[in-house]
């Protein structure tokens, strides 16, 4: 779903005469999608969007002469309306000539004059099924419905943030304000030291073309930079823009604010739709194939020392291209060493080792597994992978894990999944049973050690996340060479960790068709990033104090708009928020504050 900030507008533009003085304000897409909730099999219903005061002020004195809406199927009847109160009388209304699947238009017999006060735009319908269409956008106030039990603001009550309705008002007057919205700024995935492009969309609400723009952008704590763009966008039209920038010089996930500063050398008429918040993920993805070994072991397993040695030898022989995880699951394993969340199993028997899930055996020295490791490395991979991991709380109980994947060849029928694991090194206080003790056969010196060997355990599995087949919706089915993707999850660590400083994150991509591991990376988990990103308002006013109470975020002595996003830029409803890291955006007039907080 495309994510947009509060009051960010989308237009569906029509081809009109050059002197036409009207535009459309609201939400729309190429096609309408089925409403993901509501009454199915209903005979009647209502749908509406909220026109906030800021928009009403901009168009004050102009007239709403009609509306457009998209349906997912044919309706028997549709009545369009404008209302100051959804539970009150309509200010104007009109029965539509038809209610077909797709885009429909209605012109009111009596226009509604915009007073500067907020109001609602909507329609009633009768149909054997629910025909209300939604877009692929999210916006506060963009989705009200009534299926017989009263009006519901779905953007506040739906856990996955109800998308905006496919509904727009037609605004008409002798002079329309010069208003350009910036939206659809895409998340950037780039490499350290590279150049990248900030790409987004410009929506021209005005009845005149624009020819020049100044756009500002702020990355994390950096100062705002500016780009002057000579670009023509026709009246009531949309166009894309691109700004070439240099990537940050360190890995990380940063908030990115893009701001429309000037249009045709002047300030835009409506500041609330001039700013878009997105994310830039900077990694160090290399075309390096790494082999992932999953070892299944136990302290009381006499021959499981083979796994310890296999991992050690392969790390030495293939530095930087070998990653290992050791899951303790042999009979009698102490509870604090178990890791039930790492669900993948390589079969029965101990010791057991899996190499990229292509080669699985009991780690006998005669198996010559290192030859296969070398062969897998030499075969390369269709993708490179890197990861970024940070603790998100002072107790070191939660981790924000981001994987960055870049493909180096086309994948026309891709079916990949993304998985994560957390391992701990230097786990102390245990003894390993040694089946080689006293053996006449040499095995890396283990024959000279006793039957029980005190040692620090390495690569101990502490957590697994989607380890069987991986998260299924991270990558599309059609992948082109050079395509890059990132995905962030929050991991809740178990309480059996000895030392959080010894934790590592493993991220790996699974080919869900072959069931093989395509590539893997291991990175340290670092302390949490600063809780505030220095995206400052243009007047350098002190940022309001943000509070959290009863499941929602508030700002002391601040009467503007509060919007909440996840760390990867997804807008969420400011209600019943779960613990985690969020980005809070405060907007009042031309002032914008953005702060990253941890709940």
From TrEMBL:
N-terminal signal peptide: 1-20
Keywords linked to the UniProt accession: Signal
Superkingdom of the source species: Bacteria
Pfam families, per database record: Omp28
InterPro entries: Ig-like_fold (IPR013783), Omp28 (IPR021615), Secre_tail (IPR026444)
Protein name as annotated: Secretion system C-terminal sorting domain-containing protein
